[in-house]
Amino acid sequence: MAWIRPRSLILALLLANAICFPGKADDTGDDSLGLGASYIFGDSLVDAGNNNYLPTLSRANIRPNGIDFAASGGIPTGRYTNGRTIGDIVGEELGQPHYAVPFLAPNTTGRAVLTGVNYASGGGGILNATGRIFVNRLSMDIQVDYFNITRQQIDQLLGSSKAKEYLMKKSIFSITIGANDFLNNYMLPVLSMGARISETPDAFIDDMISHLRDQLTRLYKLDARKFILANVGPIGCIPYQKTINQLSPDECVDLPNKLAKQYNGRLTDLLAELTDNLPGATFVHANVYDMVMEVITNYDKYGFETANRACCGNGGQFAGIVPCGPTSSMCSDRSKHVFWDPYHPSEAANVILAKQLIDGDSRYISPMNLRKLRDL
After folding, report:
1. Is 161 an annotated catalytic residue?
2. What would the pLDDT profile of 57-79 be if each residue is shown by its tens digit?
3. Is residue 133 within 8 Å of residue 52, measured between CB atoms?
4. Of the listed 98, 211, 285, 344, which one is catalytic?
5. What is the rounded CA–CA span in Å between residue 14 and residue 357?
6. 341 belongs to the catalytic site
7. How do residues 14-37 score in pLDDT, each as one tens digit?
């Protein structure tokens, strides 16, 4: 299927995906290799524009998404928020010269892959069946397949010995995935009624953990050594879930949060297992569930005015039914909302979460924060 975009939007996408951070040189020569690379895997929480290049129902390259994204001058790039994703902010703070480029973008070639590549995809999940409702998306299996292509490019650019050292010592592999496996798979009765009748939550989560174990092991065999894995946040507290379940402002939906916590417990066990079984690998666990619950519960302490209503959306008490788009209502001050749209945090919330990942303590990130992981 041919997807037609205005020329101005195509130019904006190319510009935003390659642009440097303010005040930093666009240097992909050998000097920049000392800063390391960020290879980002996951779903719409960290997608930087891969879905722009897929025939899919899950897209964020429409206004007003990206309205506060300085690198593109407010033109949407495919990020599912008003500004930077957590992955963008982490890369910026850890000293990378520009944002990790989407793997599917045409300018993701040559030495650009040495400062970071983003493989994340809106609607993607650990399981390949997750996100079928969107027609197309990149599952975690496909994302690892795509990193294998990048891995071969790095060999060609640096030579096999230097490439191996660069990936093992200088690169961070970030994985933010799992929420869609519940929201757009197990909990979608239209698609999974049979599975939910025949498969208990325990069995479904077993399947997720088994697939994730294989995916992380594949990355390890491709010389990934520094990992950060985010657990699943309190998905029962997003405006979409609160709206369709007609909850009061302070309530969250019990079932999705219960599933998330059950999976998160298993994820902690998996990372301990892989630490024992994959020599030289470091697995950092990001407790996103507790981080987000802290911000939602004490939103006023962080300068927010609401933690239950989408800034950009339509429908119901919390504007949580219709995704953000040109016809959506939008709040005047995005910095006062925890949620940008019915599903995703605002840039202001992402900044708070990213700072905990970079410099936080063991309440939210363990056994070390990302600044220490980078310097390991």
Report:
1. no
2. 999 999 999 999 999 999 999 99
3. no
4. 344
5. 28
6. yes
7. 444 444 443 343 444 444 455 689
